[in-house]
């Protein structure tokens, strides 16, 4: 079965929304395979966000992701990779539809689009790579 990596980013953990994100994943019918509160390191984030290196938002994004622990989750189920991205909603919380995690719970904090509560892998290749980074023992 398909697996994806979900992160409740530091803003979501700080706001006490970890349980709400897990609730939505489970309510949709996906299974939790692994859940761990984890403080990211610069090395982990450099690998995780390699595709964004050099973009103007890269360093602010990494700094934000280092600002506190994230809840790392491996979720499993048919179609879970696109399925979780549809639960998450559009990248910018202001544009994300109501009913989605970012649309219901996120808002625009000035220019800080990176504070959009969650991450979800965007392809089977990304999912395999990201699960390996966040859960090397899985
Ligand atoms: P993830 O599930 O977190 O990967 O989000 P995504 O796939 O919707 O977005 P993408 O992979 O393109 O970007 C990764 C993360 O970088 C986003 O979730 C945002 O936190 C941040 N980000 C992306 N684009 C911008 C931007 O234009 N400005 C800022 N400040 N942050 C951005
Ligand atoms: Mg992405």
Automatic annotation (TrEMBL):
This is Nucleoside diphosphate kinase. One of its GO terms (molecular function) is nucleoside diphosphate kinase activity. InterPro entries: NDK-like_dom, NDK-like_dom_sf, Nucleoside_diP_kinase, Nucleoside_diP_kinase_AS. It catalyses: a 2'-deoxyribonucleoside 5'-diphosphate + ATP = a 2'-deoxyribonucleoside 5'-triphosphate + ADP; a ribonucleoside 5'-diphosphate + ATP = a ribonucleoside 5'-triphosphate + ADP. It is an enzyme of class 2 (transferase). The gene is ndk. Homotetramer. Belongs to the NDK family. PANTHER family: NUCLEOSIDE DIPHOSPHATE KINASE. It comes from Isoptericola peretonis. The active site is at residue 119.
